[in-house]
Amino acid sequence: MKYKIRQRSTYMVTDATSYHTIDSKEFIDCTPKYEGTSQKAFVSYLDTNFRDEKTILANEDVLSKYTVDTLYSLFIMPELKPLNSTKDIDEHPLLEISECKPKTAKIFIM
Q: Residue 76: which residues within 8 A CB-CB, separation 6 or more?
């Protein structure tokens, strides 16, 4: 019996931007305004409100140039670099096998 066999390996890669420092107090006068007090509230606020360029530009006059650039670096044009990869870890590759089915052709007689 003929078999189709291949080796398969799975690994994970995590990419990340560099860390940026942002002062949450700068966002008190933004639209929408930031009213939270915790790290979780601030990251949720940024994630919900500043993922699009339109919101960043709408608040450009109340945020510092550094913060506007940082928001672009995080959400609009992130420079992701490899942070962690399991590719070089000696994983046990898996072999996959399936039966080769004979090819059949249909003949139509008119």
A: 53, 56
Report the number of distinct structural domains present in the chain: 1
In a domain, 56, yes or no: yes
Q: Domain range for residue 38?
A: 17-92
Task: Name the residue type at position 43.
Answer: V
At 66, the amino acid letter reads Y
Give the pLDDT of the chain (110 residues) as one tens digit per residue.
Answer: 788 888 887 788 899 999 999 999 999 999 999 999 999 999 999 999 999 999 999 999 999 999 999 999 999 999 999 888 887 776 667 777 788 877 766 667 76
Residue 24: exposure state from Cβ atoms within 10 A (0-12, 13-18, ≥19): middle
